[in-house]
Design a protein that fits this description.
The protein has about 280 residues and is an all-alpha fold. Helices cover about 85% and strands about 0% of the residues. The termini are far apart.
């Protein structure tokens, strides 16, 4: 078996490279989708203004409809490219991991327990194969956020300032919870590997266990770490639950604050109806 991983190459980069044309298609579709998301709000505002001044026959309506239809097609292509990229990446990552283990030889293999290897093959490779999805998602979110922020300042600087003033609490809260979730996920992976190792030891010693009548003891031994895994999982879910409900409480307040400022600017004649819709 020939490894497709270059020397000293990060598994994440291997996953990105393994996707090939599917990763490129995913990137292109995501950029198009991002461009549509950025373009539609101001176009809707311009369409509203045109409808108020020229009537409902404005050609901008069809531009917006065309962009929305294009977005639906692009979103479908993204799903196909995402699946193809992950499939290619996980296949190569698992082949490379097995090839590396076999190259270590018997003495090298003894440094790693079998449960850990199984956990890495099944779970870690699958997670790493999503590198392209994660990278493209971060890029799209960054572009969309920056473009939206610039758009708010272009529409009205006070609306942009209202958004910036309300943003720090959400950023700090998200950073705190995500750091906790990442740390706990590493602990959970270690506990899963330990349980898998003990289960495989039990399978190898199945005849001895049956002959000695120690089935119940072996079950207790194999699942000894399940308590800590449960505790870690509950802590992860707790952090996720706290992040979700806190975001659900604060994010609408940010939107309300921005809309209040935009509405006030509309009442004093600094914004028109189209700009309010774009906000």
């Amino acid at each position: 078996m020939v490894s497709s991983t270059r020397a000293n190459e990060s598994p994440v980069w291997t996953a990105l490279r393994a996707g090939g044309s599917s990763t490129v298609l995913l990137l292109v579709c995501s950029l198009i989708d991002t461009a549509i998301l950025v373009a539609v709000p101001p176009l809707l505002g311009a369409t509203l203004n045109a409808a108020l001044t020229e009537g409902a026959g404005s050609g901008l309506v069809w531009v917006v409809v065309g962009l929305l239809a294009t977005g639906i097609v692009v979103e479908s292509l993204k799903e196909v490219a995402d699946f193809s990229s992950r499939y290619r990446a996980v296949r190569i990552l698992r082949n490379d991991l097995l090839a590396h283990v076999l190259r270590l030889g018997y003495r090298g293999q003894r440094r790693f327990n079998q449960g850990d290897l199984v956990n890495r093959l099944v779970d870690s490779c699958d997670r790493t194969s999503r590198a392209a999805t994660g990278a493209v998602g971060v890029l799209s979110a960054t572009i969309t956020s920056l473009a939206g922020l610039v758009g708010l300042f272009v529409i009205d600087y006070q609306v942009g300032l209202a958004f910036l003033l309300c943003l720090p609490p959400i950023v700090l809260m998200t950073k705190r919870h995500l750091g906790s979730i990442v740390s706990l996920s590493g602990e959970a992976a270690g506990a899963q590997g330990e349980i898998a190792t003990r289960l495989m030891d039990s399978i190898r010693g199945l005849r001895t266990i049956r002959a000695s009548g120690t089935v119940e003891l072996e079950i207790d031994r194999a699942l000894e770490s399940s308590g800590s895994l449960r505790e870690i999982s509950l802590r992860i879910w707790g952090s996720q639950r706290a992040l979700v409900w806190q975001t659900a409480m604060i994010a609408p307040l940010l939107i309300i604050a921005v809309q209040v400022v935009a509405g006030y600017r509309l009442t004093i004649g600094q914004l028109d109806a189209g700009q309010l819709v774009a906000v």
